[in-house]
Design goal:
Length: 404
């Protein structure tokens, strides 16, 4: 207990008790920030996606730099005017938003355009053999090179079956055999073609491409689903397969990156190490790629699309009915301290959970308690005189000091 605020024993246990805890995405953000900060301290360099440490914490350019701001309405509690990192691999919050946007675009723009033009679509899946002990960076490099080679060699075949474009997505669950990187490619082509004949050609071409880049491939390395937009159920399945996040189970393939963070938050060192290895292997890799398909179909680009569906994993549900939007603000210095990457608790998750009540006093009490707990943690962790001086100065930052 700090002040008048008593925290539950461990917010991380929400992950184990509830399959969809309301704070999960922000607990994952806090865990990712902690792991990436630790990586920097150990290696002296940042990984791409390390800006997740500022997501929802730092202020966005042009906004009031002195205040942390929260807006609470019927859709939940969210930070307002704060930086968004946009990382689809390290930030669970930004990844959910990007996935929801892509899935909505597939259902609301891409599939209707395919149907209105009398076209068809098939979903191709590509992967390679992989082991836990191999270099995951090299595996992902070979996978991308193999796909690039396959795409180049198949260009004439694509022309013959009237391929208009492709939407490619990358998924990377981690299991007992290491990182299971695989591509899904939604191939938009002319209707009425012999897809079975194309499947055999594509399967053989993929196997050759994998061998050419030094990889191995078995019968599970290639798969094709035809008539991907044939009926309602097929449309729902294909949009979910092409753009999914926490709603999709990795099944026997392993754990998704967010699920690794759930285990890491509970102290699983193996899951923490696997998550870092996966992020190292994903440096510079895109999660979605649609090329010029939107231009050819005369539809908005995916990144311009406004989400029309509610995210299946929205974590900011409001338990209390709030008649109108509520704005809550407090010192940015307190916000940065309460949500620090090395804080013992996932501060942002606790703050936004409390904000859902719409009560500013409760939020400020939680922020103050988090700050006090962080000060105590830093003081306890300080060993040398210089560390104690630094901790003391940090504790007094923003306070009105009286030297009289």
């Amino acid at each position: 207990m700090f002040g008048n605020v008593q925290f539950r024993k461990c917010q991380m246990t929400d992950i184990k008790k509830n399959s969809k805890p309301r704070n999960r995405e922000y607990i994952r953000v806090a865990t990712a920030s902690k792991l990436l900060a630790g990586y920097f301290h150990a290696n002296g360099k940042n990984l791409k996606g390390s800006s997740v440490v500022g997501c929802g914490r730092w202020k966005a350019y042009g906004k009031n730099p002195n205040l942390a701001e929260i807006v609470v309405d019927e859709s939940g509690a969210r930070m307002h005017g704060h930086f968004r990192c946009g990382s689809v691999w390290t930030c669970d919050h930004c990844a959910r938003a990007r996935v929801a946007q892509t899935r909505s675009w597939i259902r609301g723009a891409l599939i209707p355009a395919i149907e209105s033009r009398g076209l068809n679509a098939s979903m191709l899946t590509f992967t390679m053999a992989h082991t836990y002990g191999e270099c995951w960076i090299e595996f992902m490099k070979k996978l991308h090179l193999a796909y690039k080679l396959f795409d180049k060699r198949m260009s004439r075949i694509f022309e013959k079956i009237g391929v208009l474009g492709k939407l490619k997505t990358l998924e990377v669950p981690v299991g007992k055999n290491g990182i299971h990187g695989h591509f899904h490619s939604l191939l938009i082509h002319a209707a009425g073609i012999d897809i079975s004949a194309f499947e055999e050609i594509a399967r053989a071409a993929w196997h050759r491409a994998v061998i050419a880049v030094g990889g191995n491939c078995n019968e599970h390395g290639f798969d094709l689903k035809s008539n991907a937009v044939a009926d309602y159920l097929a449309k729902q399945e294909i949009s979910h397969e092409m753009a999914s996040h926490g709603t999709k189970s990795a099944k026997s393939k392993g754990l998704l990156l967010g699920q690794l963070l759930d285990k890491a938050a509970l102290g699983d060192s193996k899951a923490s190490a696997e998550w870092i290895r996966a992020i190292e292997a994903l440096q510079g890799r895109a999660r979605f790629h649609a090329g010029d398909i939107a231009k050819k179909l005369a539809i908005p680009n995916c990144t311009e699309w406004e989400v029309e569906e509610k995210n299946d994993n929205v974590s900011d549900e409001v338990n209390t009915v709030i008649p109108q939007s509520t704005e809550i603000s407090y010192s940015i210095d307190k916000h940065l301290k309460a949500t620090a990457s090395d804080h013992p608790r996932p501060g942002l998750a606790l703050i936004l959970r409390t904000a859902r009540s719409g009560c500013p006093k409760r939020v400020l009490a939680v922020v103050d308690a988090l700050c006090d707990e962080y000060d105590a943690y830093k003081w306890k962790s300080a060993v040398t005189p210089s560390q104690r001086l630094e901790a003391r100065m940090f504790m007094e930052r923003g306070k009105d000091l009286n030297f009289g």
